[in-house]
Design brief:
The protein is of the alpha/beta class. It is built from twelve helices and 18 strands. The two termini are 27 Å apart.
């Protein structure tokens, strides 16, 4: 049986960042796919550059961004001030909705302002994500945008989600913020600016991987079982003994491989069908994200690649949310999406030049009271056997790609400190 000190499962951002942080340590990266990148893969067709989904990068740590840039010689990287809007009826409202209700028709603006003012008095508390929206922002803001949009995204009843399901990524606003925004617009958020490389998200993955030994990445090799007591892992090709196993695979799948008793029903998620479309000519300029709360429109969001590098042809990604057990009819969805794009005047007489689609499963995890409790129960058990589950799916959380790098580095430092 082969032995390795650090067995890393998954060659996405989290796994590769772990390996890069380990440096000269004894490690092996297992990747079930035939190439690295996870959900940060990039597709290039007919001159268009797309990702599996929109990965616009937001850095809070300048040293991490600098570290990545140093490993991307010759790659043009744009820093872009994000421009996001909500398609609301026949008008486009600045995002976030709750800070721009003054852009609504007058009667709807009054409804929103009135309900916001009396929200706390009329609410029944904040027991879940949906009740939090009503309690903090009022009935009108919740029902005009926040509820329909997020139900389309998460593909579930928002009452099932925890109050803090989106953490720091939810654009909170109070009455003072909203009134001030009527005169002095300030729509800043955690991702007010983003960076993006000309070659797509995979360039960031390659930058991380440049610090990883190529001979220590095993592609097309899937982990299928873990013996916690013996600290051994069975893959599709061999058995490995490890001191520490660091995994970014979805937490319920990892736990199932250990045969630990757990509540499977605690972990739910959605699927997201992503269409990448390239058209023959330009569409709307000066927009990077457009949100669609209208339930009559199949997709919940569009991202505009062509407005990052000011290219001459419309290049977009379109996202549709589905329950985890839904059967996704890609061909039928494609026809409806193209019709909805035309109805919403995203395309007019454009000719479709190139396309790509992918179903991300899981996409967004559902953070619920049950998932938080089960994660808190399982984590120390796994850790005590040298197994560490990290990343958006391993940690069953909502986080940024930069957060994954930070978490991986912190884990390596903690394991080294424990060893010493």
């Amino acid at each position: 049986m082969e032995k390795v000190r650090y067995l890393i499962v998954g060659a996405g951002v989290s796994g590769l960042s772990t390996a890069a942080a380990l440096g000269d340590e004894d490690y092996l990266v297992l990747e079930a796919d035939s190439e690295i990148g996870g959900y940060c893969k990039t597709i290039k067709r007919e001159g268009f550059v797309w990702d599996y989904s929109g990965h616009f990068f937001h850095f809070k740590h300048p040293e991490i961004e600098a570290w990545l840039r140093e490993r991307m010689p010759g790659q043009e990287i744009r820093v872009v001030e994000k421009k996001s809007f909500i398609q609301y009826g026949d008008r486009q409202i600045d995002f976030p909705f709750q800070k721009n209700i003054h852009q609504l028709p007058q009667n709807e603006f009054i409804d929103c302002l009135y309900d916001l003012y009396f929200a706390k008095e009329q609410s029944a508390g904040e027991d879940n994500f949906k009740s939090m929206l009503y309690a903090r922002l009022g009935k009108s803001i919740a029902e005009k945008f926040l509820i329909p949009y997020n139900e389309k995204l998460y593909a579930c009843d928002l009452e099932k989600l925890d109050v803090d399901a989106m953490g720091r990524f939810f654009p909170h606003a109070d009455l003072t913020d909203i009134v001030r925004n009527m005169r002095m617009a300030n729509n800043a958020s955690y991702n007010s600016t983003f960076t993006y490389p000309e070659g797509g998200a995979i360039e960031y993955v390659k930058a991380i991987a440049s610090d990883v030994r190529r001979d220590r990445i095993a592609l097309s090799e899937r982990l299928i079982a873990i013996d916690l007591e013996a600290r051994t892992a069975t893959t599709t090709k061999r058995e490995l003994q490890f001191e520490h196993l660091v995994s970014s695979v979805p937490l319920p799948a990892l736990v199932a491989m250990t045969k630990l008793a757990h509540d499977e029903s605690a972990f739910t998620w959605n699927k997201v069908l992503v269409f990448n479309f390239g058209f023959d000519r330009k569409g709307q300029s000066d927009v990077h994200w457009m949100y669609y709360p209208d339930r009559a429109t199949s997709f919940y969001r569009i991202g505009f690649y062509d407005n990052i590098f000011d290219t001459e042809r419309l290049s977009i990604y379109v996202e549709l949310g589905y329950p985890r057990d839904a059967v996704v009819d890609v061909a039928a969805a494609r026809e409806r999406v193209l019709a909805d794009l035309a109805r919403n005047t995203v395309i007019r007489d454009h000719e479709l030049v190139a396309e790509h689609s992918v179903v991300m499963d899981p996409a967004y995890v559902h953070i619920t009271k049950a998932s938080l409790a089960e994660h808190a129960r399982l984590q120390p058990i796994l850790n005590s056997h040298g197994v560490h589950s990290i990343g958006r799916y391993g940690g069953w959380t909502y986080c940024s790609i930069e957060d994954n790098i930070v978490e991986a580095r912190a884990l390596v430092n903690a394991l080294r400190a424990k060893k010493n």
